[in-house]
Amino acid sequence: PEPWRGARASEEALNRLPDPAALAALEAVAAAAFGASPERTAAVAGAEAAIRLLPLLLGVRAVEVVGPTYGAHAEAWRAAGVATRLIAPDQAAASQAGVLVVVNPNNPDGRLTRRADL
Question: Are both 112 and 68 inside the same structural domain?
């Protein structure tokens, strides 16, 4: 975890809906930073929305979720019809699933996975 070191947004900016052009610009910057295509990048309002949308964006058939962790992760993948399996942290490196979900820091126990290990 690395806290934001930039300036805090103004009160006005925090209290208005996102501008569609600014949102598209944010998604383009995020896509470039993570090596993703902008068409498959979405800025969302909150973690729960991201958890629910991710299975719909990736189009994979199998996912493994490193657990124990927040139950909504596995629930979202199952609801999207994706074969979902919970695995222990020591099994993650050997995963052959189309997607490996690693919550970092983990919820609810705070377990951290080092950046080098990711």
Answer: yes
Q: 98: which 2 tokens? A: 């189309």
Please report whether residue 48 resides in a domain.
no
64 SS3 class: strand
User: How distant, in Å, are the alpha carbons of 83, 103, 112 from that of 72?
Assistant: 15, 11, 19
Compute CA 96 distance to the chain's CA centroid, rounded to the nearest angstrom. 19
What's the pLDDT tens digit per position in 89-106?
Answer: 999 999 999 999 999 999
Domain count, the chain: 2
Amino acid at 73: H
- Total number of residues shown for the chain: 118
pTM of the model: 0.71
User: For 116, what's the count of Cα atoms within 13 Å in the CB-facing half-sphere?
Assistant: 0
